[in-house]
Amino acid sequence: MTRVVLAPDSFKGTITAADAAAALADGWASVDPTAEFVHRPMADGGEGTMAAFEAAVPGAVRMPLTVDGPAGQRVDTCWLLLPPTESAPAGTAVVDLGSTSGIELLHELRPWDADTTGLGQAVAAALDHGVSRIVVGIGSSASTDGGTGMLAALGARFLEAAGAPVARGARGLDDIASVDLSALRAAPEVRVLTDVTNPLTGPRGAAAVFGPQKGLRAAEDIALVDDGLRRLADLLHIDTAGQGHGAAGGTGAAFAAWGGVLAPGAAEVAALIDLAGAIADADVVVTGEGSYDGQSGDGKVPSFLAGLAAAAGARAMLAAGRITDDADTAPFAACASLTALAGSPEAALAEPGRWLREAGAALARAVV
Q1: What is the CATH number of the domain that holds 121?
Q2: CB under 8 Å to 206, separation ≥6 — which residues?
C-alpha cells in the first residue's frame, strides 16, 4: 500500500489548498485504490496562510473588520485570533496581507497607487485588541510601496521636502524627503511569514522581480521605484540586502524596521501542522501551486516540500497550474501541469478541480 502525503499550496484565486489536496487524492485513487492518503494543505505566507492556522488551531476565532483595500475602496475582511498560550497570554493575531492589500482584490493592476494601508489597519485592529503576538503572512501583495501604507496606518508619516505627506503607493516613494516615526505604535512580538527570500533592491529586489507582476513594465519605471525603495531604506535604516526584505513589494523591510522578525512562511506553517511527522513514513509527497516557475525555488511551498521529502526518503511529486521553462523540476520524481493536461491555461483555470484529479491520476501512474 502506498502512503501519499498531499501538501499543496492554494492555486491562487482558483482553488484552496484543502480542495486541491482532495482533488489530487480522488485522481490518485482512481489509479491506485489501495493508497492511503494524509492531507496536509499548506501555505507559505501568501494566500491561504490564515486558513491553515484556522484549521490547525482549536479555538481560533475570526475577527471581522473593514479596511482600505489596494484599489482605494473599502474591503470587508478579518484577522484571526488564536487562544492564549503561556508565551502569548493575551492571544496571538494572525493577519493576512492577501485579504487586506492583496493583488486578488484588484480588478485591474494599480502599479503606482496600490498600497498596504489595509494591512496596517488590520494590524492596528489586532493591537487595539491587546494581543501579545502578531503573525503576519505577507504574500500576494498588490503594491510596491515599501510597506509605507502599512507603517502610515500605524502612525508613521512619510513627508516630502515641503513637509506635506507624499502620495500613497509607489508613486510617493521618489518624493520622500523625511520620515517621522514619533507617533508610530509600539510593536509587540511580530513574526512575519514570507514566501520569498529576495532583498529589497537591486536585480533580485522588489521592483525588478515582482514589480512587473504588479504592473511596472518599463525599465525606467522599475529603476525609479528601485531608487525610491533604496532612499526609503536609508531613512528607515534598513539593510537593502536583508533576506526577505523585498517580499510583498518591500513590506518585509517595513516590518523589519518596526521590529518584526522575518521567517520562511512554509517552514512556520509546516511546523504548526506537524508536516515532518506526517512525511516521516510516507512513500510519496505530492505538492503544488498555481504557477511553478523560476521564483518557486525561493522559499515557496513546492521547493520546501521537496526538501522535506528528500530528508525522509520519500519521492516528491508536483502538480501545478503551469510549469514554466525556467522552473527547476529536478527535485521531483514526476510533475504534472494542469495547463498541459487541459490543453490551455483557460481550460485549466476554468475547471481546476477536474484537472487536479487528472494530475493526481497521472502522478499515480508514475508509481504504479
Answers
A1: 3.90.1510.10
A2: 144, 146, 198, 200, 225, 226, 229, 246, 247, 248, 249, 250
Q: How far is CA 251 from CA 101, 142, 279, 337, in A?
A: 11, 11, 33, 31
Domain boundary among the residues 233, 266, 299 is at 266
Please give the Cα distance from 278 to 255 (Å, whole number): 32
Same domain, 126 and 54: yes
Distance separating alpha carbons of residues 54 and 47, to the nearest angstrom = 13
Per-position b or e across 214-244, b if 16+ CB within 10 A of its CB: bbbeeeebbebbbebbbbbbeebebebebbb
Integer Cα distance of 157 and 236 in angstroms: 12
pLDDT band for position 12 (cuts 50, 70, 90)? confident
222 and 141 fall within a common domain: yes
The more confidently predicted of residues 123 and 296 is 123
- Write out pLDDT tens, residues 247-289: 999 999 999 999 999 999 999 899 888 899 999 999 999 999 9
The DSSP secondary-structure symbol of 347 reads H
With CA atoms as reference, report the closest residue to 323 among 314, 315, 332, 310: 332
Count up the domains in the chain and report the number.
Answer: 2
The pLDDT of 306-321, averaged and rounded, is: 97
Q: Do residue 122 and residue 238 come from a single domain?
A: yes
C-alpha distances out from residue 266 to 263, 271, 333, Å? 9, 9, 21
- For residues 78-101, give the mean pLDDT: 96
Place of cell 485570533: 81
- Does residue 205 sit in the same domain as residue 308? no
Q: Which residues of 309-325 are buried (b: 16+ CB within 10 A; e: fewer)?
A: beebebbbbbbbbbbee
Distances from the Cα of 339 to the Cα of 16, 195, 294, 331, 351, angstroms:
18, 24, 17, 21, 11
Enclosing domain of residue 294: 3-42+274-365
